[in-house]
Design brief:
By secondary structure, the protein is mainly beta. The chain has helices at about 1-10, 30-35, 165-170, 170-175, 180-185; strands at about 15, 25-30, 40-50, 55-65, 65-80, 80-85, 90-110, 115-140, 145-160, 185-205.
Length: about 200
């Protein structure tokens, strides 16, 4: 998506940066609704102009499974404005993001047999993340808009589960695939972070 945007920008007109003001908008995160992992939920947010091409945004949300909440704040700087057909604005930006998540949920699995035995366990997560992002916003003033971004940074994770040592050695999905093991295993420390996102919303100006 970003490659196509960058290729198209060669043929678009660039306006004076002084004529632009960062958008004031509200939005939702559609990908979070479609996520099939334990992180699926609803996230909503808003963005306000601070000064010329600088804006701040905040997002809050909750999860469909278990209990918990998530929040993000961004400081964004918009690069010079491009136009399409004099109606649509494409604006590229860089942003600093801090994100927080805490969640508790239950998981059902089986102990490898024979015979296979059911096992239910609980996972507690605390995650704090800092990212540097680049993105593009496609919009018209006082209309719907879309925002696409990618970024990378560092994440601090604290994850705990209630599995016993025996269950850890014999639980079925941890040995037949890596997703449950990667998502639910206990850890405490820093790791790399990659973020990819898509927002849709309404721009008030």
């Amino acid at each position: 998506m970003f490659l196509s945007v960058l290729c198209c920008s060669t043929f678009l007109r660039t306006e004076n940066i002084d004529s632009f003001r960062a958008p004031t908008a509200v939005y939702i995160m559609p990908c979070q609704l479609l996520n099939l992992s334990y992180a699926s939920g609803i996230i909503m947010g808003g963005e306000v102009n601070i000064y010329k091409s600088i804006s701040a945004s905040a997002e809050v949300g909750t999860f469909f499974q278990g209990t918990g909440n998530t929040a993000k704040v961004n400081l964004k700087y918009y690069l010079p404005l491009n136009e399409i057909d004099g109606r649509y604005e494409i604006r590229y930006y860089v942003a600093l993001e801090y994100a927080y998540k805490n969640q508790q949920y239950g998981v059902s699995d089986k102990i490898e047999g024979p015979p296979k035995q059911d096992v239910n366990y609980t996972v507690d997560k605390f995650i704090s993340t800092g990212n540097l992002k680049v993105g593009s916003s496609w919009s018209r003033k006082k209309s719907w808009f879309m925002d696409f971004y990618v970024g990378a940074g560092v994440r601090y994770r604290v994850v705990r589960n209630t599995l016993t040592p025996y269950e850890l050695d014999h639980i079925y999905h941890w040995h037949e695939g890596f997703i449950d093991r990667f998502t639910n295993s206990s850890c405490n420390g820093f790791c790399p972070s990659i973020t990819i996102g898509w927002k849709v919303g309404y721009r008030f100006r």
